[in-house]
Write a structure and sequence with these properties.
By secondary structure, this protein is mainly beta. The chain has two helices and eleven strands; from the N terminus they run E-E-E-E-E-E-E-E-E-H-H-E-E. The longest helix is centred in the C-terminal third of the chain and has 5 residues.
């Protein structure tokens, strides 16, 4: 069993920064693909960033490239999403997700959300960016 617990959300003004954390516990040794998603009211869930924990490779959706960075600390079983230069359109509920036994190319390749079975999800943390 795997549990994901997210934290770090909050309210900031445009241009500000937040760092989200996702702590994984339980049987985590097979997890090798970690994703961050977000969903705003009335909108579809969107893949934001993904990380191959084996290689450290990352993929980002175009709207956050250059502003968001995903990283991990294996010793702490924690994945981070550093969000800089936040914009009002970044306002959403942010979710951490994890996949086990995932092919590297599927994890960080093009169209990665559809090619990965994210079987574990966090509870979400709200990010609100004001103009």
């Amino acid at each position: 069993q795997v549990q994901l617990v997210e934290s770090g959300g909050g309210s900031v003004q445009a241009g500000g920064s937040l760092r989200l954390s996702c702590v994984a516990s339980g049987l985590t040794y097979r997890l090798n693909c970690m994703g961050w998603f977000r969903q705003a009211p009335g909108k579809e869930r969107e893949g934001v960033a993904v990380l191959s924990i084996e290689r450290g490779s990352q993929t980002y959706t175009d709207s956050v490239k250059g502003r968001f960075t995903v990283s991990h600390d294996n010793a702490k079983n924690t994945v981070y999403l550093q969000m800089d230069s936040l914009k009002p359109e970044d306002t959403a509920m942010y979710y951490c997700a994890a996949a086990a036994n995932t092919w590297y190319g599927a994890c960080v390749g093009n169209n990665w959300p559809a090619r990965v079975n994210f079987g574990y999800w966090g509870q979400g943390t709200q990010v609100t960016v004001s103009s």
